[in-house]
Amino acid sequence: MKEITGINHVGLRVTDLDVARGFYEKLGFVFIVGPVGPEPVAVMEHPSGININFILNGSESKTLNVLMDVPEKYTGFTHIALEVTDLQAAQAYLESINYTITEGPIVTPDGASFIFVRDPDDNVIEFHQTTAS
């Protein structure tokens, strides 16, 4: 469909707005509004234009991330990939704020590289650097 111009936002279900907000603020996201609406939802945006909607009705019980952590491979979105200009610098920063690198760095045959972390609700975030020119 030619009318699509980009991704407007990513929705993440979370259990605690304050905890999620604190985590994503350390990644440079700025709180915009919330909670609003019947779900309810809160919105944060990064200066790069990436917008995240936190759906604030996550279950308080700690369970596995069904899309990532169980042997059955269910369909659905498994992670968000954030493009970075310097993966080594991003990794150093994440480690300096005690965010655990859960996988990587991984380098593809074409030279792209990426690492993964998880937010407090076990949502997976990839930091991705494309092939250097």
Automatic annotation (TrEMBL):
One of its GO terms (molecular function) is lactoylglutathione lyase activity. SUPFAM superfamilies: Glyoxalase/Bleomycin resistance protein/Dihydroxybiphenyl dioxygenase. Keywords: Metal-binding. The keyword Ribosomal protein does not apply. One of its GO terms (biological process) is L-methylmalonyl-CoA metabolic process. It comes from the Bacteria. Pfam families: Glyoxalase. Transmembrane segments: none annotated. Residues 6-130 form the VOC domain. PANTHER family: METHYLMALONYL-COA EPIMERASE, METHYLMALONYL-COA EPIMERASE, MITOCHONDRIAL. This is VOC family protein. The lineage of its organism: Bacteria, Pseudomonadati, Pseudomonadota, Gammaproteobacteria, Oceanospirillales.
